[in-house]
Amino acid sequence: MLENRQISGMLRQIARQDVIELGPEMSRARIAALAHVAEHYGFEYADAHRTGQNKNLIEVQMYRDPRPEARAREAATIAAYTQAGSGGAVPGMRQGTLKPLPEAQEAVTQLGDRIAFDLMGNAASKRQMLLPWICVAALVITLLVCGMYIGAVAGGAALAAFLIGGVKIGEIRRQRIAQRLTDAGFVAVQDEHGRQRLLRPGQQLPGHANPFAG
C-alpha cells in the first residue's frame, strides 16, 4: 500500500540521516501524520516550504534531536514497533494507514497547524511577494505602451487590490493558527530571517552543527 511505502521510505531516511525530508507529493495532513511518527523516533519538526514548478507541493524538514530524552524515545519506539516499515504498526497510526489514532489526533493537528503557519509565513515574505508585484508593474507598463491609459490604471489597481486582499486574508488565517498553538503552549520566537516561528517549550531553532543546541 502507498502508506506503507511512505512510512518505510521515511524510516530509511531516519536510519541513515540526521535531517529528513517529508513530501513533496503528499497532502499536508499526511505529512503531519508522518512527522508525528518521526517524532517517536527522536526527530523534531524544523520547517516547511513549497516546492515544485508551480510551488504547489509541500516539503517538510525534520532534524534528529540529540537530547537524551529523544534518544530514549527512539530506542523505546524501535523496541516496541519491530515491524514498522514492513506493514506492521507504527506509533500513533491505525495499522497500515496514516490515519491518526484518537490519542494522537491532537498532536497531528498541531503539527499540521505548524506546517501551515510556516508555509503562510514563507508565502508572505518580501522575496515571495516580489514576483506578483513585478507582474502588476508589467501589466501596467504593457497597457500604457499600448495606449490603454484607463485600462492601465483600472487593471493595475484591481490586481494590486487582489494581492493585498489575499495577503490580509492569509495573515488573518495565520494569526488564528498562532492563537491555537500558543493556547496549546507553543512559544513564539523569531528566526534568523525575521520570521515568526512557533516552537514547543524548551525547543531551539535548528542550527547547522547541533540543531537543538542551546
Characteristics:
single chain; 214 residues; alpha+beta; three-stranded antiparallel sheet; 6 helices; 14% strand; elongated
Q: Determine the N-to-C terminus distance.
A: 41 Å
Reading the helices and strands in chain order gives: HEHEEHHHHEE
pLDDT < 50 runs, ≥5 residues: none
Globular, elongated, flat, extended or rod-shaped: what is the shape? elongated
Tell me the strand order in the biggest sheet: 1-3-2
Radius of gyration: 21 Å
Task: Give the biggest sheet.
Answer: 3 strands, antiparallel
- Number of H- or I-type helical stretches: 6
Strand count: 5
Structural class: alpha+beta
Helix content: 55-70%
Mean pLDDT, all residues:
84
Beta-strand portion reads: 5-15%
Q: Could you please describe the fold and organization of this structure?
A:
The chain is of the alpha+beta class and 214 residues long. 55% of the residues lie in helices and 14% in strands. The chain has helices at residues 2-16, 28-40, 68-80, 102-123, 126-145, 149-183; strands at 19-22, 43-51, 57-64, 187-190, 196-199. The strands form 2 sheets. It has a 3-stranded antiparallel β-sheet. The protein has a two-stranded antiparallel sheet with strand order 4-5. A hairpin with a 5-residue loop joins strand 4 (187-190) and strand 5 (196-199). Helix 2 packs across helix 4, helix 4 packs antiparallel against helix 6 (149-183) and helix 5 (126-145) runs antiparallel to helix 6 (149-183). The chain starts with a helix and ends in a 15-residue tail after the last strand. The mean pLDDT is 84.
